[in-house]
Inverse folding.
């Protein structure tokens, strides 16, 4: 019973460690949104990557990232690759998407979508909460 309880405590600690960067990411994202300019970007290319794990289906493991071009407030053109992968049929060259970027750092541009702005924090928080919940369940379990 002691070893199982110890494992539960380890899970809770791992979960807490993952929740800290999730909170920091949320604070940064709120600050980013407050300072960012909104601009329309156009998908000019689709960057396709293949995972290193071989599958029998050639489509397996492929990830599709939109490469967007936008013009900042100074009239300069910039390119940015979306941070999150999409299904092949969800991204098309010529499509327009809203972007947010910091005027003093156009390379900071992000797609103004749930995953584009909040994705990293959502993944960290979700994983952290799963670890905390699993650890708490093990600790609270009566054997």
């Amino acid at each position: 019973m002691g070893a199982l309880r110890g494992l539960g405590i380890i899970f809770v600690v791992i979960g807490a460690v993952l929740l800290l960067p999730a909170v920091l990411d949320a604070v940064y994202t709120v600050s980013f949104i407050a300072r960012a300019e909104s601009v329309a970007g156009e998908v000019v290319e689709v960057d396709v990557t293949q995972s290193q794990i071989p599958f029998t289906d050639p489509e397996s493991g492929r990830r599709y990232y939109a490469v967007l071009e936008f013009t900042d407030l100074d009239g300069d053109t910039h390119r940015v690759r979306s941070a999150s992968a999409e299904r092949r049929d969800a991204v098309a060259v010529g499509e327009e998407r809203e972007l947010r970027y910091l005027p003093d750092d156009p390379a900071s541009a992000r797609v103004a979508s749930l995953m584009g702005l909040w994705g990293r924090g959502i993944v960290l928080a979700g994983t952290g909460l799963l670890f905390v919940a699993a650890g708490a369940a093990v600790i609270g379990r009566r054997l």
